[in-house]
């Protein structure tokens, strides 16, 4: 497994970086583009993230195979979503309305991630889906056909992607769709994100309390532009918070965003970071010699914005404050068990990340000395790599295992860090 050494010689971080466009918005836009015709809908600033490129490849495969579909469906065409959870959930819904017999699969970890709430909802709407191996988990056999829509109730405590997948195909239903959500869904900001994308495409959709309505649509707007990814910007803000001093510019970032992770702008203030919007750019500032944060200043419920958990954990570790993290239990179902991964890696710096009932406590009471020799594992998880690497600003040179995992959402992450003074070297085998 490859690894890198990362360090920052001055701990003063200045310069201009470029972040990718939103992976989550790109993936939603691609499904709608496919449904309403690639020749009629153009997308600009599409994400270069591996997940998005994988979805594009799957959609291209689907188009190719559809040309060979027979009415008798004698054999299934295989679509492999590998380790892309969003793509797998979106494709489950999409294939259920795509004529043909399909086998939707993924990697070993994907076969451990739940899919039952989405399959249950689709089956209630008339979809023909069956499990190939273990009930409730991939792989799936899907026989696609037209669905007329109607009403359905969905379990929402494991993933918002089940709801999002259904919402994206709902405009094609003759009767549209009415969804009743179970109370307090996880990652709710991503459901709101899907609703906003539908609206921006010109589809009538609204949410009131735990009810969502999507009206049928025959056409959509013919152009859609993807905004920068705030889940990625969060790691640049993390860097600023740990640095002794920071002045970082990210170009072409608007103060208006439909992404829930935009809330990092407010959370960052607790860590001495100011986000200023000027001339269509984002300027991230941290002044020199800030007063240290007070203990126990931070408590937040991440149920709606789970992708901020890892950068905020790292920011809190670097600040040396004890924190309470609520609403993160479903992180165990992501690319890896992110809770266990954080527990393992934080233990290396004598920081405890402990579950207590329905929340986790970050305990910094036994901090190690800077410049200790540290190697962090990344667990095939892009966000683990991106949250741990900036800790070199506090602890000195670090070794990061399997650094290529960042390709999943932020392919140019390491090059962008070099632009603001980080030194990165490939470890010699």
Give a quick precis of the structure.
This protein is an alpha/beta fold and 429 residues long. The protein is built from 13 helices and 22 strands. The protein is 30% helix and 24% strand.
Please explain how this structure is put together:
The longest helix is centred in the first third of the chain and has 17 residues, at about 50-65. Helices cover about 30% and strands about 25% of the residues. The protein is globular, with a radius of gyration of 22 Å. The strands form six sheets. A four-stranded mixed sheet has the order 20-21-1-22. Strands 2-13-15-14 form a four-stranded mixed sheet, with helices on one face. By secondary structure, the chain is α/β, with parallel strands linked by helices. The mean pLDDT is about 90. The chain has helices spanning about 25-35, 50-65, 85-95, 115-125, 160-170, 190-200, 230-240, 265, 310-320, 340-345, 380-390, 390-395, 415-420; strands at about 5, 10-15, 40-45, 75-80, 100-105, 130, 140-145, 150-155, 175-180, 205-210, 210-215, 225, 245-250, 275-280, 280-285, 300, 325, 350-355, 360-365, 375, 400, 425. Strand 8 (about 150-155), helix 5 and strand 9 form a beta-alpha-beta unit. The chain is built from 13 helices and 22 strands. Helix 3 (about 85-95) runs parallel beside helix 5 (about 160-170).
